[in-house]
Write a structure and sequence with these properties.
5 strands; 5-stranded mixed sheet; 11 helices; binds glutathione; Glutaredoxin; 234 residues; Glutathione S-transferase Yfyf (Class Pi), Chain A, domain 2; alpha/beta
């Protein structure tokens, strides 16, 4: 079977992997995971032992977890797509550096606010956690805005998997009610606006929202975890 991506709702960071698959344009399928469900499907845990999305089941049935590994796997499937770069090039160094920053600093900045999201409205820790997330994420938005100054894309002179990953995370500031990005970071908001108009991003939103979605890439439909042949991880 073609690669199968497990993506999480609501608003998981797996959004970026859906966008990257659309940009690649090669056949793939999706499995939808409700991240707020109390019980985790046993087949899902077989693919993703930590119970996190994204996870990609490869053509030979091997599961691949972790966004960066998945995004680089997708980019490496066709370097001519411009989504990634060849080993040993300065362009790949910049892409890897950007992806690492987006994951270890930007994604992590929101963790306290996601913890707060799962707490009761009157929980005494809620506002402290949200303030911490806002403080951390503000530094990231400012740094990303600076890094984009005079550049069209986050890494390289074309859109790459870094832009795909970025757009799945950048929305969290407004999703969580922490920022008004248009007024606070107008330069960065311009990049977000450009990406939001991209057909791959429009497609990924429709998929997450459960609306009819028109693929300009290779989307072949959803499958259930039961329909997959999963090999044990090496
Ligand atoms: N290090 C993992 C983190 C993935 C991650 O944080 N996924 C979240 C959604 S953004 C998730 O699946 N959360 C559900 C849970 O932890 O129960 C990666 O980069 O792929």
């Amino acid at each position: 079977m073609e690669p199968v991506l497990f993506y999480g709702i609501p608003h998981g960071c797996s959004f970026g992997s859906i966008v990257a698959l659309e940009w690649l344009g090669k056949p793939y399928r999706l499995v939808r995971i409700d991240m707020l469900a109390k019980e985790k499907d046993a087949r899902y845990i077989e693919v993703s032992p930590l119970g996190q999305t994204p996870a990609l089941v490869l053509e030979d049935g091997r599961p691949l977890t972790e966004s960066l590994a998945i995004l680089l796997n997708i980019a490496g499937r066709d370097l001519g797509s411009g989504l990634g770069f060849a080993q040993g090039t300065p362009e790949l160094d910049r892409l890897n550096s950007m992806l690492s920053y987006l994951h270890t600093t930007f994604h992590s900045a929101f963790a306290p606010a996601w913890t707060a999201y799962k707490l009761a409205e009157d929980d005494p820790d809620r506002e402290m956690l949200r303030a911490l997330a806002r403080d951390q994420a503000a530094k990231c938005y400012a740094r990303l805005q600076d890094m984009l100054e005079g550049r069209g894309w986050l890494a390289g002179d074309r859109k790459t998997v870094a832009d795909a990953y970025f757009i799945g995370i950048a929305r969290w500031g407004e999703d969580l009610g922490l920022f008004d990005l248009a007024s606070e970071y107008p330069g960065l908001h311009e990049h977000i606006r450009k990406l939001e108009a991209d057909p791959g991003v429009v497609f990924a939103h429709a998929i997450e929202d459960g609306r009819p979605a028109t693929s300009s890439g290779g989307f072949l439909g959803h499958v259930t975890p039961e329909e997959l042949e999963v090999r044990a991880a090496a």
